[in-house]
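Extended Data, panel c. Modelled sequence:
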Amino acid sequence: MKKLHIKKGDTVYVNAGNDKGKTGKVLEIITKKDRAIVEGVNMVKKHTKPNAQHPQGGIIEQEAGIHISNLQVVDPVKGGPTRIGRRRNAEGKNVRYAKKSGEEIK
């Protein structure tokens, strides 16, 4: 499995594409394709047949994957996009930290 700078649950900033400047929470990571599904970003319309969840069927708007190179984690202290580093904490565990503020990312 790859080590990515983004994890499920992170708040991320979109730095490229049609949704540039938006922020959202990561709902899912697709490691094989290096993509993430971010809440409210890269919305697409999907045509669906009637099923148990949608008895009418029709057109549903949902999030599509966005490449992780177009995403940056939002700094927990300063609030803007930041790069991510890795280091050992006091207990000897590897943790991610924001390069902008030096704060550990949970």
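The CA atoms of residues 48 and 57 lie 5 Å apart. This feature is highlighted in the accompanying rendering.
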